Each structure stands twice: as C-alpha cells, then as structure tokens.
Amino acid sequence: MSDVQAQSDMAFACGACDTPLFQSKDIITTILSGAMGKSFLVRNPTNIGFSSGEKQIRLTTGMHVTRDIECLTCRKPLGWYYVKAFETDQKFKEGAYLIEKALLVPVKAQTQPSVFSFLWKQ
Ligand SMILES: [Zn+2]
Q1: Cβ proximity of 23 and 45 under 8 Å
Q2: What is the sign of the dihedral through the CA atoms of 93, 65, 117 and 22?
Q3: Which of 33, 40, 46, 113 has its CA 20 to 30 A from that of 81?
C-alpha cells in the first residue's frame, strides 16, 4: 500500500517551463494514446488554456469534438480537451483533458487541494 500512497503524492508540470498542471489524483486513466504516444486523461488541470475553437475529429475510438490546449505560461501545446464524444462508451472523456506524457515532468505534489477539485467531489 505504500506504493499507492507515494503515487497519490505525485504531480506533473509542463516539461518546458515547470508550471504545475495536475496531480496524480486528477488522472482518470493513463491508457489513452495521444499524438506522441502515452497520454494522461485528466480532470481539473490548472494553468492550461484553449488554443483553438471546437473541432470535430475522428479518432480510433470514434468521432469527438475537441479543442487544442496549451500551457498558459509558455504556450506550448499539451494535447486536447474533449468537448463531446459521440460513442456511448467514450462519454467518460467529455470534460476531460488529454495531455501527452512526453511533454510533462513529475514534481512533488502540493498539499492543499484546489477549490475546483474540492467542488468536484461534492
Ligand atoms: Zn509551459
């Protein structure tokens, strides 16, 4: 169980500028593949902005409406945000962010939960 505890203290930052983006507890799944390989699907990341409007794209898992996302500090593209998934078994992605693992660096987690993540658990 100590491994799980250590995992839950992990956080991830932008690999280009070290801006904190999310904590391991915000990760929904790590099995998705982005453009550059393994990716995290994340709820409630911080310091991330949209760099495009909504666009409809076809992925191996069906049609999705997405927006490109970027680091708010250095404007580096990080992945995309799922606005809408058309396939029923992909609906869990809606409102979540796909962030390329290759673009991140692991950092020590901050101890205070964000207000947003607190609200999410209500
Ligand atoms: Zn950055």
Answers
A1: no
A2: positive
A3: 113
Residue with tokens 């962010």: 97
Dist. CA 27–CA 89, nearest whole Å:
18
CA-wise closest residue to 40 among 84, 62, 7, 6: 7
The alpha carbon of 49 and the centre of ligand 1 are apart by a number of angstroms equal to 11
Low-confidence ranges of the chain (pLDDT < 70): 1-8, 32, 34-36, 110-122
**Which residue's entry shows tokens 């250590």?**
6
- In this predicted structure, what is the pLDDT of residue 34? 67
14 three-class SS: strand
Q: Give the Å distance between the CA of 65 and the centre of ligand 1.
A: 24
d(Cα 94, Cα 84) in Å, to the nearest integer? 5
